[in-house]
Amino acid sequence: MVSYYTCVSVLLLVCLTIMLLVLPLILPPLPPPPPILMLLPVVIFILLMLIAFVPSSVNTVVVSYI
């Protein structure tokens, strides 16, 4: 079977996982973000929904398999 991950990539992922588990225990807690920044994910979600459901201006889509 073909290996999709090299030794270096596995080592990098393991180090990243250990850092994500250990650093929150070492670093002091951060203050909460300003309230306006809390709306940013909501705005991004609304924009993505508009992009997904607003019809495009392309009348015909030509697909050729050659």
Automatic annotation (TrEMBL):
Keyword Nucleotidyltransferase found: no
UniProt signal peptide: none
GO cellular component, one term: nucleus
Membrane topology: Multi-pass membrane protein
Superkingdom assignment: Eukaryota
Chief localization: cytoplasm
Biological processes annotated in GO: positive regulation of organ growth; response to hormone
InterPro entries associated with the record: ARGOS/ARL/OSR1 (IPR037468)
Alphabetical UniProt keywords: Cytoplasm, Developmental protein, Endoplasmic reticulum, Membrane, Nucleus, Transmembrane, Transmembrane helix
Keyword Transmembrane helix applies: yes
Membrane-traversing stretches: 7-27, 39-65
Subcellular location: Cytoplasm; Endoplasmic reticulum; Membrane; Nucleus
Family named by the database record: Belongs to the plant organ size related (OSR) protein family.
Name under which the protein is recorded: Transmembrane protein
Biological source species: Marchantia polymorpha subsp. ruderalis
